[in-house]
Amino acid sequence: MSDSEVPLRYINLYGPPLKHADAKAGDMMKLYPDHASTYRGRLLVSFAHVSQPNPDDSDRFVVKEVEDEDWEALKPPLTRYVLRLSLLAGQDLPTVRAKTGLPARLFVVVAIGPHELRFEANAAKNGSIVWGLTQEMKNIVLASDLTQVPDIIVTLCKETSDTDDPVGVSFARLRAGDVVARGMAPAVTWLHLRQEICRKGSIPVGQHPGSLLLRMAFAREEVRVHIFQCKGLVVDDLKSKGTLPDPLVQVHFNGVTRKTKPRSRTLDPLYYESLQFDTTIPAKAEYAGEVWIQVVNKIGFNTVKYMGEYRVPLAKCTKASTVPYPSWVPLTKSDLMDDAVAAGQLLVSVQIIEHPTAEDRTAALPSIVPECREAYVDIIALGVRNLKNNNLLHIQNPFVEFELTGLNSTSGENNIQRRTKASHEPTSKNANFLERLVIPTRLPIDILFAPQLVLKVYDSTLAGLHQPLIASCVIDLTLKLPWSPSYEPPQQQAFDYHIDAAKKRSKQRRVQPKAETPAIEVAPSNGDSKDEKHGITETHDDDGTGIGVLALPAVSFEATDESKQDPAVLHQVQQAHDRRLFASVQDAKKKGHVYFVSDPNAMVSSSFTSPDDEAHALDSPAYYAGRDWWLKVPKRRELVLLPSLEDVIRLKIDKAFTDAIELSKEIDTYHDVAAAAMKCIVLGIENILDDDWATMQRVNWGTVETVGDESAYVLAIADKLRPYVPTLRSMLSSLYFTNFCDKFAASVVPKVLQSIVKCKRVNHVGTQQLLLDVYALKTLFLNLPVMGKEGEVQIVGATTVPARYTKFVSNEMAHVEAVLKLIGTPNEMLVDSFKIMWPEGTAENFQSILNMKGLKRQEQLALLEALGLQQRKAPPAAAKQMIEGKMTDMTESLKSNMQKMAKASNPFNYINTTN
Questions:
Q1: Mean pLDDT of the chain
Q2: What domains, with CATH codes, occur in the chain?
Q3: What is the spatial distance between Cα 583 and Cα 513, in angstroms, rounded to a whole number?
Q4: For 585, which of 200, 504, 604, 742 could close a Cys bridge (C-beta 3.0–4.6 Å)?
């Protein structure tokens, strides 16, 4: 029974030299290999401890044949090393005699396993030799595990006629692991040799074996060029679909060329490949060669056509153990005048790995494909306009082809293509398609890697056999990703325009009747008719209901005895009232609005289809003379109608008492109570969300390794708000629900940034997860005013999201996303990104970002110095407060507008006094 088994490993063998060795000394070296001078090979072995042997086996060694299907797969991993040695001089070297009796010339051999370097022979003068030589040996394939790598043996030899087998005089052994630990730029040291005891008499008695002044380096240096993608490649002779290039990238460095796989028929290829160069780099990278990157078009089996290039000095490349953050660089090509012509862009990063560890040597190349999430690209293809003739040929049946390049498509395609149908209606140059195309794909979370949507317009001629290219363009998806800080919702500007226009029209309809209220004039009594006596003239322009043009009889509103007692006048007033009311409500029904009617037996009672309709009425119809029913509305609307009630009462009573009608105190009381109620409601929502913000702050964002769905605290916030807000909306009028939305935005939305600032160190992956959470919260907040109890978006009646609320939430969340993007920005790009994304930011703001990135004090000082801003001394908590207190101007304006609703200094004053 085997308890444990050791994986296969190499055992290195050492012993005496093969020739000219003393037998007794050779036996000693065979018995004690640590003192041997020569490498004699290696064994591939494995061990197993058998605790319960088979009783049939004897106590002697048992030889069995072990069968295994794949021995090669079980071998230890191998890697390529570089041995570099600078042999400067030697001193205290022994005087060795040749067979002729003359002093023999000495040379040095450096060996590691079967590989060796040999330096030229020189004659020693006074025991010293100056070599001043440097040699290098590449592609030394040995085990990746340094404990299985043979020792480096430096041997001082004498020159003989047998050049194949040098005769060693003295030697020294160095463990490979110790040499690797010194790096590729070690210090110059003296190496003291010891005598080769297997060759007696080679060193005269009383002489030293010698010492060598040298610098030795044994390690692996590697340059990796990470090719991500290209965009906007330029082709001179692009005429049809078949002439699109098949671009590939080839990289030249130190005489070695590596190539990516070609991408088929595209100008915006995605590669996501890493090209590896095992090479050596000078101690000063300024003396190293350039990394030459070429983009070529593969035409045939061995034929390529130059498209563009980019050169980068190795000194500007990044020394790192992980993949550096890429950047977009311009591709250029030279014309006949040797001028640089733009040829597109390349997303690339170059990585230098010095002295990689055993893990680095054995690990496979890491994947550079970015984190992606499921998404759909929704395209509405309406048509084309004003197409021009193609090479004097008339346009016949144009169609549009959409191509989304990507290696992460759900269908497995490299380039996902969708095309419309060919159309020539109404005309070929202005064809309509009216199609919707949906592309399921996976899009990167980091917007730097966002692919591009390529749009090409072709003309289908000769029954589709010939399809010449007419025009093309590229749509950058960076602004289309919902999780992008610069995301622009589809047609948002058009929606905002229509919403603002509708509000202006509604405001004009409300203001116009007040301006056109009939004037009451008392003419002197001169025996004229009653109508002329009272001087009543009623003029009203048509507001869309058709009432303004009706020839209605004049109605007196003075409290005269005649009007109170005359049945004809009363009937006339009632008739005018009914006609105007009926026309107004019928127009409201056509527009989809419902208005309140106090009389259940009125002719318009059928306008209410259900009791719930009454709760969703938004505004009242225009006020007309004689419409006193307008004042008899449910209690929930009394607050809105108090100012109008004051005006109407003044019109109804005698002029002598109009100044006594003053409802300003009641109006202020209603405002105070309403403001206090709204404050309590929003405060209650804040309290129930405190636990969720605390949960967010307790997450260790510095150790997050993967980006998943929305975090648990986001789901908890959504579960609490979804059933609460719809209930509140059904209980409040539109005016106060809008006020609630404003207060909610000003109080709860800034909590997102405040909670993020209170989090400790946030790594790059944690930043991406927080961006995803912020996008989910932004969507939740924007849809909250029209969301149902189950989370679905419902447009209740004419309810829409207030434009001011939408604008405030979008701006605040955009500020949060900008802060997170700065936290996730690499250090070398942080200063430039901060100046672009936060131009008004101060040194304290910048240091807050550095604190959340978890940078050390020295790193922060270096970046602050690079930023060029003077840091002011502030309390310890001031750094975070700078971001927390960075409220936008809209926030301050919104708070000011809400405070004006309550004219009293304390909204609870009236409540306290009444108690």
A1: 74
A2: 2-219 (2.60.40.150), 221-362 (2.60.40.150), 372-481 (2.60.40.150), 516-662 (no CATH), 676-899 (1.10.357)
A3: 16
A4: 604
Torsion of CA 231, 236, 240, 241, to 10 degrees: -30
Supply angle C-alpha 195, 199, 205, rounded to 5: 60
Report how far Cα 518 is from the mean position of its chain's Cα atoms.
Answer: 62
The verdict on whether omega for the bond into residue 426 sits within 30 degrees of 0, i.e. cis, is yes
Tell how many helices (H) and how many strands (E) occur in the chain. Answer: 22, 28
Q: What is the pTM of this model?
A: 0.46
Q: At 638, give phi and psi (nearest 5°).
A: -65, -35
495 band by pLDDT with thresholds 50, 70 and 90: low
Quick check: 297 and 307 in contact, CB under 8 A?
Answer: yes
Tokens for 89, please give them.
């001089």
CA distance 279 to 281: 7
pLDDT for the residue numbered 559: 45
- Report how far residue 2's alpha carbon sits from residue 536's, in angstroms, rounded to the nearest whole number: 116
pLDDT tens string 855-864 = 777 777 888 7
Give the chain's end-to-end CA distance (angstroms, integer): 90
The Cα 180–Cα 83 span in angstroms is 10
d(Cα 615, Cα 618) in Å, to the nearest integer? 9
- According to DSSP, the residues that pair with 823 across neighbouring strands are none
Q: Are 555 and 531 in contact (CB under 8 A)?
A: no
For residue range 160-203, list pLDDT tens digits in order: 877 667 888 999 999 988 888 887 778 899 999 998 888 877 78
Cα torsion through 190, 196, 201, 202, rounded to 10 = -50
Q: Is the pLDDT of residue 915 over 50?
A: no
DSSP string of 285-313, one letter each residue: GGGSPEEEEEEEEE-SSS-EEEEEEEEEE
User: Containing H/E element for 82?
Assistant: strand 78-91
Confidence of residue 210 (pLDDT cuts 50, 70, 90): very high
- Inter-axis angle of helices 843-853 and 750-758, nearest 10: 60
Q: How many CB atoms lie within 10 A of CB 453?
A: 20
- Residue-level length of the chain: 915
pLDDT tens, residue by residue, 711-748:
888 888 888 887 778 888 878 777 777 778 888 888 88
- Which residues make Cβ contacts (< 8 Å) with residue 220, sequence separation at least 6? 79, 80, 81, 82, 278, 353, 355, 356, 361
Q: 3-state DSSP call for residue 446? A: coil
Beta pairing class for 340-353 and 318-319: parallel
Share of the chain above pLDDT 90, in %: 11
DSSP string, 138-196: EEEEEESSGGGSPPEEEEEEE--S--SS-EEEEEEEE-HHHHHHT-SSPPPEEEE-EE-
Give the mean model confidence (pLDDT) for residues 340-353: 87
Q: In this model, does residue 125 exceed pLDDT 60?
A: yes
Long-range contacts of 512-519 (CB under 8 A, 24+ apart): 512/541, 512/543, 512/622, 513/540, 513/543, 513/622, 513/623, 513/624, 514/623, 516/540, 516/541, 517/623, 517/625, 518/625
Q: At what angle do helices 712-731 and 664-698 cross, to 10 degrees?
A: 160
Tokens of 452: 């591009």
Which helix (H) or strand (E) covers residue 455, if one does?
Answer: strand 452-459
Q: Which residues contact 529 (CB under 8 A, 6 or more apart)?
A: none
Q: Nearest Cα to 770, choosing from 812, 727, 714? A: 714
Please name the residue that has the structure tokens 């006609």.
Answer: 579
Contacts of 260 (CB under 8 A, 6+ apart): 227, 248, 249, 250, 271, 273, 275
pLDDT tens readout for residues 39-89: 999 998 887 777 777 777 666 666 777 666 667 777 888 877 888 899 999
Q: How far apart are CA 384 and CA 398, in angstroms?
A: 8
